[in-house]
Design a protein that fits this description.
Two copies of one chain form a homodimer. Chain A has 341 residues and is an alpha/beta fold. The first copy, chain A, contains twelve helices and twelve strands. The longest helix of chain A is centred in the C-terminal third of the chain and has 26 residues, at 226-251. Chain A is globular and about 60 Å long.
């Protein structure tokens, strides 16, 4: 199992990337290829006593900036560390890619270089989100702002397979993010997608989910267009931060607060771990022909290590193959025509 | 100052309504009119030792159910407690309405019976939401699922006036909920609305706001189409519940947890109060010709009392007049044409 890691993606690259790779080699026994400027990688490795001889380094001279037009990964930045990682994956010189660079460039680069699974209309970015009793997968969170109902159905299929194969959830509950539970709620997209899910019967569709019940864990897979999903993702981050600041201010208010904190430290840590994105690794990009994991832009070494583990599982457990089969089957037996109205 | 209260709106009506009215009369010195079945009101008041003689009761025999088609407030339920409240307001027999009934019926009933301010395209429901350093107003949260850019501009104007007049914030920061800060981000609606806000200069427009910065309090007025706003509202509720459950489990874990809780009780209460919707009263319906407050469906007596105070302020401080002037001015000097492209 060889994981290809973009050495220059994320705020803490390349150091955190190299540290994460080193830890993953030891902990998971995976082989690692790192892409990027080999001189810089060597220098950073030497300075930080990281044994680069355990990894394969593939030189790529440039880095695509986060603010750059994503489509430039195919032109001006065709030789960047991210594009190089995707080319290696497409050529079969590795089993999965981990990258913490520009989300837009990852979606464009992976879709065009690694290519999509046959029949998949769009790749979707699908972070694993915390809920009261575990976690759920949310897709899409921004790769596709405007969606058609068929795309949402495919998101549901892909998310369901991921949660079953990777998170071990039997028959995951798939729900559509909406402003009400009734099937007549929402805009045209939601109403049409509801019908399509209901008639296609390819996943365990439990209907619409109001966002107030998402954190309770009522669904294992939450399907949304990229705009709505991105709003859900970012508001969850913002409220998580607000709450963690509130906890801090409760426990930092004088001696009593600090004493109190000591007494419940393990419970606080448990909750913080649950909310901590570094524990979950990264967000799988669902729908590409080979596994791609988007690590968080601010990933530290631990987050990179966990993203590499996640990439290994993604490649090892046949998620792509299962999606390929399901989409082919869906095409062979399309939903009844009235659902497409 | 007379506040008209729908006696039969909300899960805890009519008892919580009457208790809230009684408390408001004592605390704020307002006059109260309650609408609804007078036999039931009298019976509940007697049973709970509430002095109904301090309020004016206007009999209305029916109640529009929450699940009913909202437009029926104009036909089958034209004599319901909610419609009666709006008719009294329209006739000048009170200064504001408080109602905890069906949101849809409130929007339809208020728009058609109380009517909209001249030039206002749509009334918007605008809850006051908690943030780290205070609160912000969010509009719309569901009255208008599909919006045009001009509607979002009007939402911004109305929200800005409310925050200035009622919450005392000078030159409130108005931002557009979006998935990125750049003016090219989002769908067609967001891109066009951004241009319109920028060129019209009627409010202190600070650009797009990503939802991760909403709880931090970066904006005083968050403008969104009704679908997006409703997602933000409900996810905030859901995550608030998740966090409050987490707090409970931290402090209820054994003797240490309970002792710890005692030591920081006042700080916990402070945070809970901040997150507590009953403190803020209800959500103003912005854009109607007279003030209407939508109280939360699960309002208790305290929430009704606070909603009545909010309705008093809404009526007293000339919010409707200021909106009327601003909209007239906006019409007289429309934004430059390139903003309407």
């Amino acid at each position: 199992m060889r994981i290809i890691v973009d050495g220059f993606g994320g705020d803490n690259s390349p150091l955190a990337v190299l540290q994460g790779c080193e830890a993953a080699i030891i902990e998971y026994g995976v082989d690692i290829t790192v892409t990027g400027d080999q001189e810089i990688l060597k220098k950073v490795a030497d300075e930080n006593k990281i044994d680069l001889s355990k990894m394969k380094v593939v030189h790529s001279p440039t880095v695509i900036p986060v603010c750059e037009d994503p489509s430039k990964i195919m032109t001006d930045y065709a030789d960047c560390s991210m594009a190089t990682a995707f080319k290696l994956l497409a050529a079969g010189e590795g089993d999965a890619v981990v990258c913490a660079g520009s989300t837009g460039a990852i979606v464009v680069g992976a879709s065009l270089i690694v290519k999509r699974i046959k029949g998949i209309k769009r790749a979707a970015l699908a972070p694993i989100m915390p809920s009261e009793n575990g976690c759920y997968i949310l897709l899409d969170v921004g790769a596709n702002l405007e969606c058609r109902p068929e795309m949402l159905l495919q998101f549901g299929v892909m998310g369901s397979i991921y949660m079953e194969k990777i998170m071990g959830i039997k028959s995951p509950k798939v729900a559509l993010a909406n402003i009400g539970e009734e099937e007549t709620k929402g805009g045209e997209l939601q109403i049409a997608a509801y019908k399509l899910f209901k008639s296609s019967k390819v996943v365990n569709f439990t209907g619409n989910i109001e966002p107030r019940y998402i954190p309770r864990g009522d669904a294992d897979v939450v399907v949304a267009d990229g705009f709505t999903g991105n709003i859900i993702l970012k508001l969850t981050e913002g409220l998580g931060k607000m709450f963690s600041n509130a906890l801090k201010s409760i426990f930092m208010s004088g001696l009593k607060g600090k004493l109190s904190a000591l007494m419940v430290m393990s419970a606080i840590k448990g909750f913080k771990n649950k909310m901590d994105y570094t524990e979950y690794g990264g967000a799988p990009l669902m729908g590409t022909a080979k596994p791609v994991i988007k690590a968080h832009g601010s990933s530290n070494a631990k987050a990179f290590k966990n993203a590499i583990r996640q990439a290994r599982d993604f490649a090892e457990r046949g998620v792509v193959e299962e999606i390929t089969n399901s989409i082919a089957q869906l095409k062979a037996t399309p939903p009844t025509s009235d659902a497409n109205e």
